[in-house]
Amino acid sequence: MAATMVKDGNLNYSEDEEENYSDDGDWGDWKADDDVIGGGEEEEDDDGSESDFLCLFCDSHFVSCDLLFEHCRMSHGFDFHGIRKELKLDFYSSFKLINYIRSQVAENKCWSWRIESDDFKDVKFPWDEEKYLKPVWQEDSLLYSFADDEEDEEDTFDREEVMEDLRKLGDLCIDVEALGETSMSNNDKCNINGSKDVTLLSNCNGLKDDLIVNGKDAEPKVCDGRLVNRNIKKVNENYFGSYSSFGIHKEMLSDKVRTEAYRDALLKNPTLLNGSVVMDVGCGTGILSLFAAKAGALRVVAVEASEKMAKVATKIAKDNKVFNDNEHNGVLEVAHSMVEELDKSIQIQPHSVDVLVSEWMGYCLLYESMLSSVLYARDRWLKPGGAILPDTATMFVAGFGKGATSLPFWEDVYGFDMSSIGKEILEDTARLPIVDVIEERDLVTQPALLQTFDLATMKPDEVDFTATATLEPTESEAKTRLCHGVVLWFDTGFTSRFCKENPTVLSTSPYTPPTHWAQTVLTFQEPISVAPASLLPRDDRRGAIGTKECPASSIHLRVSVARAHEHRSIDISLEATGLSSKGQKRHWPVQIFNL
Q1: What SS3 class is residue 332?
Q2: Same-domain check for residues 76 and 184
Q3: The domain containing residue 330 runs over which residues?
Q4: Where in this protein does the record put region Disordered (predicted)?
Q5: Which of 223, 251, 268 is the last residue of a domain?
Q6: Which of 165, 185, 213, 313 could form a disulfide with 286 if both were Cys (CB 3.0 to 4.6 A apart)?
Q7: Based on the domain organization, do 216 and 247 belong to the same domain?
Q8: What is the pLDDT at residue 304?
C-alpha cells in the first residue's frame, strides 16, 4: 500500500536556469493563468485588488489567509496559529517567521515543518534576526494580512504604521548582492516554493540545526504528550484521507503483480482459509476480504480507518452478497476504525483470528509505518500459531548506473548538449530519495540482501534497523562503469509455512514486472567507478579508490532505516565505502534521506 507520489527525479531549476525562461512571460502572465484555491472566482479586497496568497511550502494559491494556513496545517504540518500561541510569538516575531520559511524554501532547504515544541525557553529562534524583517519578495500579501483577523490580541501599536515601516525597511536594502543576500523579484515568485513534481517532501532539518541554547547547538525540548498526540492525529487524518480517493485504489487494484499474489495466496490455499476467521487490516475497497470470503472463510472482519472507504467496502460487500448484518447473511463485516481502536467498534475476542491478512507495504517497504499496526493486530487477535499473510518481507539493494538517471536525456536534446542541466539535477537528487522504475539493464552491480523480516515473530521495534551489504560489479560487461547510487526494493513472501498448497512471492524487483511501488533510488553525492576484480591490474595504480584511474572492486554499504520524527515517515542513512582489489578503502560522507 503506497499513497500516490509523483515518480520524477527532476528537481528545481536554479535562478540562472530560471532566467532562460524569461521569454515565457512574466509573473503577472503566469498568475493570471492560475486558478486560485478557495473559491470558484478570485475574490477582491475592498479596494478592488486581488487577494492572492501563496503557500509557504508549495505553489498553491488561496484567496484568504485562513484557507492558506489551514492548507499548511493539513498538508505541510505547519500550524501557524498554533505555533504562534505555543511560542508566544508577537507580531514582529511572526513576521520574521514567515520570511524565514520563505527564505528556506527558496533555497531548497525546507518543504514542510517538523518542529514540535511548546517550550522554547532560553532558545534563540533561527528567524529572530533583523534581516527577516525584510520581505523575501516585496509583494508577499501574506505579510500584510496574517494578523488582520486576530481577535484575542490587543493592538498596542498602529498596524498601518508598522507595515509602512517594514515596507521602508525593504527599500533601505537596495544592494542586496553586496550584503550577500538573495532578493526575489516578481519573476522569482513562480519558483519560490519549487516544483510540485518532487517525489519526496523533505523537512525543515536546517531549522533544528540552527537552534541555539545558551550559545550552544541543541535540539528543541520535547513537547508534551498532548501536542504530540494532536500532531499524530493530524498525520493520521491526512494519511487515511489520502486513501479515500478512488484513484489510488484503481492504481493498486490494477497492479496485477500485487493483486494476483494476494488472490493466489487466499484462493489457492483451501486448507488455510476454509472455515477460518480472517481479519483484513486496512481493507480499502475490501478486495482481500472478498477473496477470503470466496475462499470459504467462516467470518471476515475488514478493518478500515477511512470513513469513506469503510462505507465503500460495505456497499461492495452488500453488492456481492457477502455482507453480514441483521439484514444480510454473509460472512463479511466492515469496521470503520484504526486497528488499535478496534475494540470500540466491533466485538471480537482476543486471539480468535485464524488468518491475519494485510497489504501494508509502502515505498521502500516501510514508508507509511503501517507495519506496526499489523503487528499490533497480530499480538492482539491472532491465535497462537495462526497465519499472517504475507509472513516474510525482504529488502534488497543494488547499484545503478548512468542509464537510471536523467543524464542520457540531457546529453542529447534534439542534437544539443544540455548535460550541464543533467549534472545539476543529479546533484539535487543526492538530497532526496526518488521513487521510480529502474530497468534491470541499468544496474551495474549484483543485488545484495539488506534485511529480512519474519512477520510471524518479529517485534515492533525491529522495524528500525541497521544493516550492511557488499555490492559486487556485474561481470556481464567487462568494463569500468560508474555507480551513481543504490536502488532499494522488497519482496514479500506467502511461504509454505502457512500457504502449503500454493506458496507465492510478491516482488517489486527490477528483474520482475513493475509494480506501483516501483523502486526507491538513493543517489550518491559523487559517482563511484567500479569494475570486476578480474579486470583490475595487479600493479599499483595511482588515484583515489572509486575514480576512473582506480576503480573499486566492490562497494560496502551501511544502511540504517528508522521511523522518522514525523509520524508515518522514515529516515534512511547511507554510508558507502569503496574497496580496492587489495583491500584498500575509501569512505564517502554519510548521506541522510527522509521519506
Answers
A1: strand
A2: yes
A3: 242-359
A4: 1-47
A5: 223
A6: 313
A7: no
A8: 94
Number of structural domains found in the chain: 3
> DSSP letters of 90-152?
-HHHHHHHHHHHHHHHHTTS-SS-----S--TTEE-TT-SGGGGS-SSTT-TTTTTTTTT-SS
**Sign, CA torsion 340/344/345/350:** positive
Neighbours of 497 (CB within 10 A): 14
CA distance 60 to 180: 29
Does the annotation count 116 as an active-site position? no
Q: Which of 359, 411, 440, 501 is catalytic?
A: 359
CA-to-CA distance for 207 and 192, rounded, in angstroms? 18
Q: What is the pLDDT of residues 365-411, one digit of tens each?
A: 998 768 999 999 999 999 999 999 999 999 999 999 998 888 888 88
Q: What angle do the packed helices 287-294 and 307-319 form, to 10 degrees? A: 30
Q: What is the pTM of this model?
A: 0.61
Please check whether residues 96 and 167 belong to one and the same domain. Answer: yes
- Per-residue DSSP letter, 463: G
Looking at the structure, do residues 215 and 108 belong to the same domain, yes or no?
A: yes
Same-domain pairing of 504 and 567: yes
Active-site residue, 304 included:
no
Residue with cell 542534437: 415
- Residue 7 located in a structural domain: no
Catalytic residue among 368, 427, 477, 549: 368
